[in-house]
Amino acid sequence: MARKRRSFSSEYKERVARMVVDDGLEVSGVCRDQDLGETAVRRWVDQLKAERTGQPGEGRPLTAEQQRIRQLGEANRRVEEDKELLKKASAFFARELK
Fold it and tell me: Rounded CA gap, 30 and 67, in Å?
């Protein structure tokens, strides 16, 4: 019977990935000890390595810095959209006043 899909916090994923990257533990050993699948742990390790080099990685960010970068990027996108809307509105009202 297949396992029920579990979800883990970013902090937990980062901690498990650090066991492999920083502590030098084997992925298979960490998976066995934590009752996790190897594919998931390898993905978390790859993401941690990518985030440490400044790349966004795939999926939800693990490190606090990457989470903050993603939040700021989303906020910046919203500001740019608002700015474009205001440009269009000001051009529309400028034509109305003539």
Answer: 25
Return the domain boundaries, the chain.
10-97
CATH architecture of 10-97: Orthogonal Bundle (1.10)
DSSP-derived 3-state class of residue 35? coil
Q: What is the pLDDT along the chain (98 residues), one digit of tens a residue?
A: 676 888 888 889 999 999 999 998 899 999 999 999 999 999 999 988 988 887 776 777 777 888 888 889 899 999 999 999 999 988 888 887 66
